[in-house]
RNA sequence: GUGGUCGUAGAUCAAUGGUAGAUCUCCAGAUUGUGAUUCUGGCUGUUGCGGGUUCGAGUCCCGUCGAUCACCCCA
């Protein structure tokens, strides 16, 4: 047992884990590019005050925050939206609107690790800045659906739970609930699904409401409500409305959402939300002291819950396996059959790599049998045997075991051609 | 931050308070120009770490560090 272990809540990614992680990143990037989003990368450490301003002083309890050697109060980012808002406020005039930006980056929260939650996780953040119309909200909802579909998930596996903060604003206005109770109210609604009914009722009574009133209001809301009309029309046109379920109980924790809110839920495993987001039209203004007013909406997806879901889904795992097989394989393994030809072997390695092939070989003298085992372990498609007969070279297809003899000067071109062909053609034929 | 369960070889796991083991992996050989299988041999442990009880602790007790589940929180 090693003397040192990973620090609580942090993770190592060994090659197999890293392949899955890169697969997830690749799907995220691919879908983001298809939707016209551009990638950016914000700072990993911010002034602690940035998060206090957005979320209040209590937030420091869940921050990795400290004083640096220059006496600055700083924190590892617990999310990337404040960073984005800061960046947008600083240079939004340089970019045409709408700004469609995405980021893949590690975030850090000092919380107790448990299922679906670590202290370090990767968040995929996708935002549209400078567009107030709900068409932007619809674009994001559609995007979140396509991200899920890119992993092989269909309507049986997940659903979008959609709501709108304005429903509750109207409700609270009608009930004449004071401003200072409204944040508390939204937290009660957020927890209602998990909390016992009596507890919810007690908490609601404390601010002048009752569970019955709230339940009646929720029952009165459906997909025909006017507030959802633009999204419904937009997503129906895209053929995606069947993924959406109206659910007024979705309000999303803290107070900065101003309109549409939605979450991606899996339907089979009762995990926590896979992703969530909504419209936050006032945040850029808040974090820039009112200097920049930029309407915005965005959503975020974490890698931890998504990985759990993938690991429980056979279809999604097949996609991962195919990706991993490709990521952890090589095109060619050079077998040095005659150690006096190592110079020629190194020249061959270099030439094939220059041609763009993935090439590996034994760094030290090994028996031929060992080298073929290594070729197998390296998941190479071809073994290239450099021996006494050089410049005549034996090339063995490690999938169908066929061998051919090639002259050194044509080797690279021939291999590039053969590698470009589908792996299993020979077996099918 | 609070509480439950858990921590033994690289991995998965055994071992009544009484000699720390099995399987797989890995390494070497059988096999000095061809991958599999098989066979033979071999390595790795202060039983997470630190204390305590005991003639004797992997086992019981305390602390600590991790893991896991739940609470809290979930931006």
Describe the model.
The structure is a single chain. The protein is built from 16 helices and 16 strands. It is an alpha+beta fold and 429 residues long. The chain starts with 14 loop residues before the first helix and ends with a helix. The chain folds into two domains: 15-42 and 80-321, BirA Bifunctional Protein, domain 2, CATH 3.30.930.10; 330-428, 3-Layer(aba) Sandwich (Rossmann fold), CATH 3.40.50. The structure holds one RNA strand of 75 nucleotides.
CATH superfamily of the largest domain: Bira Bifunctional Protein, Domain 2
Query: In total, how many domains does the architecture comprise?
Result: 2
* Poorly predicted parts: 425-429
CATH fold-level label of the largest domain: BirA Bifunctional Protein, domain 2
Distance between the termini: 50 Å
**Residue share in helix:** 40-55%
Question: Main β-sheet: number of strands, strand sense, barrel status?
Answer: 8 strands, mixed
CATH class of the largest domain: Alpha Beta
**Spatial extent as radius of gyration:** 28 Å
Count of strand segments = 16
Helix-strand category: alpha+beta
The tally of helices reads 16
Share of β-strand residues: 15-25%
Strand arrangement, major sheet: 1-5-6-11-10-9-7-8
Mean pLDDT: 90
What is the approximate shape? elongated
Which CATH architecture of the largest domain is right?
2-Layer Sandwich
